[in-house]
Design brief:
By secondary structure, this protein is mainly alpha-helical. Helix content is 69%, strand content 0%. The protein has ten helices and no strands. The chain has helices spanning 5-19, 26-33, 37-43, 47-59, 69-80, 86-96, 106-112, 117-145, 151-159, 167-186. Helix 1 (5-19) packs across helix 4 and helix 2 (26-33) crosses helix 3 (37-43). The longest helix is centred in the last third of the chain and has 29 residues, at 117-145. The radius of gyration is 18 Å and the shape is globular. The relative contact order is 0.11.
């Protein structure tokens, strides 16, 4: 298969999910693709650009996501939370490119809901910083405390309120409540 930006990005994403952000290097990526490290730079000028490309690829499903701003941001969390170290990756990628989805989509959703453009843009920036920090924090807590509850475990725990919840399921439901509540507060039009 010919080396391409798409192949490089897909392979980098795979390495990220398997080994974590710290182990995604141009050298390791080249080894995985069985090419010289210099061959990667023909398609990707820097590691930062590679990480930005991976972030865009991970977030691409949000481009077609229906619903309002709250639904978009809930889907964002659902999409990225299960992927190892993606919260940290997105913090880096957003610092490089503030047009990552959903940042580009949020102002449109808020304007469609009747927000003035200047308020929609400012609120979008605040919401993105909150969402990125919340997801990165939740992923890092899970990494430090052991495996997090899966969405299925959280759902089962919520459906059986009298049953004793495992600590990781309690943390996951608490984190989800905090995330949702934070978004609701930020998305209330003043």
């Amino acid at each position: 298969m010919a080396l391409s930006l798409e192949l490089i990005t897909t392979t980098a994403r795979s390495l990220l999910v398997q080994y974590g952000l710290q182990d995604v290097s141009m050298r390791r990526l080249a080894k995985e693709l069985d090419v010289a490290p210099g061959a990667l730079y023909y398609h990707v000028p820097s590691k930062q650009e590679l990480l930005r490309s991976v972030a865009h690829e991970i977030l691409s499903p949000l481009q077609q996501e229906p619903g309002d701003a709250l639904e978009l941001m809930l889907r964002f969390r659902e999409l990225v939370l299960p992927l190892r170290d993606v919260g940290d990756l997105l913090l880096l990628a957003y610092a490089l490119d503030e047009s990552l989805p959903p940042a580009r989509l949020l102002p449109e959703r808020l304007i469609a809901a009747g927000w003035p453009q200047s308020s929609a843009e400012e609120t979008s920036a605040v919401v993105m910083r909150f969402a990125l920090g919340a997801v990165a924090t939740e992923q890092n807590q899970a990494l430090l405390q052991g495996p997090a509850a899966t969405p299925r475990q959280v759902q089962n725990a919520q459906q059986a309120p009298h049953a004793q919840q495992a600590p990781h399921a309690q943390q996951a439901t608490a984190a989800e409540r905090i995330y949702r509540r934070g978004l609701q507060k930020l998305l209330i039009r003043a």
